[in-house]
Amino acid sequence: MNSVYETSPSPVVENITFATEMQSTLVPPLRYRGDCIEALGQCIPKDQIGGDLMDLVADGLEVITYVADVSGHGLRAGVLMGMIKTAMRYGLLLRRPLKNLVTDLNRVLPQVKQPSMFVTMAALRFDGSEEMEYVSAGHVPLLHFRKRSNDVVRHYAQQHPLGLLAGDDCVSSRIRFDTGDILLLPTDGAVELGEELGTDEGLEVLARTMRNFNKNPLPEILELFQRAINRRGAQLDDRTLLLVRALRSAGQPPIRQLHLNDSACCEALETTWNRMLAELAAGLADD
Prior knowledge:
The chain has 287 residues and is α+β, with helices and mostly antiparallel strands. It has helices at 11-26, 74-93, 98-108, 199-213, 218-230, 263-286, and strands at residues 30-33, 37-44, 52-59, 62-70, 119-126, 131-137, 142-146, 151-155, 173-176, 182-186, 239-246. It is built from 6 helices and 11 strands. Strands 1-2-11-10-7-8 form a 6-stranded antiparallel β-sheet, with helices on one face. Strands 3-4-5-6-9 form a 5-stranded antiparallel β-sheet, covered by helices on one side. Strand 5 (119-126) and strand 6 form a beta hairpin.
């Protein structure tokens, strides 16, 4: 008589499945098209759970998108990535100004992570005007292809990574852009190409591709980036590339800011946000 036995998945298989699901949930492929911009992003982790994060949140004509790089890989990095993504989305839901939100993250991160861990981040905020807000904390430069002059400039902010110095306040800058301009937010794994090429060489590889193929659709540009990177050696780190193309004509009247102006409402949201951060820090400290 034949016997049929039910077998449960091995711990190794379960761990692989969990890692795959965690990575795909936290960092799915990113694709967006609105009135002002279109965006396309891809993250290729080195391990099953990487340390790179990217996200985009749109609220009417306001769009905020960012990339972050958590030090290390594996479950600890994945948990911290999830915390950052949740905090960013919750803060944006409460209409928290971008630079204040990043400052808050820097304030709370030391309380909920190991001392050796840190996060680099670069973020862009579009509001329908001809300028974007740019925030960077210890991240590799933003590459900006300017269609009018057919060149690529690098934008970089001299600020510490998040989670190292809790008292540091984040600052932001305003960058003018025109229709057809392309912005690229990479992580260091996409620009540190092999053991013999430094960051500058990697950035120039990406900049040259932007100059030569800026008229192509974003999926084609992203594919060209990946080919150029793969030709220069084996993957040593997570690789994330987030492309943004400006669709709105410069010179059109700025669209009204979406942040709430009523002082009482702002104070209520500020209180809610600070309480959420305090509860998060307290809960993880108790663990």
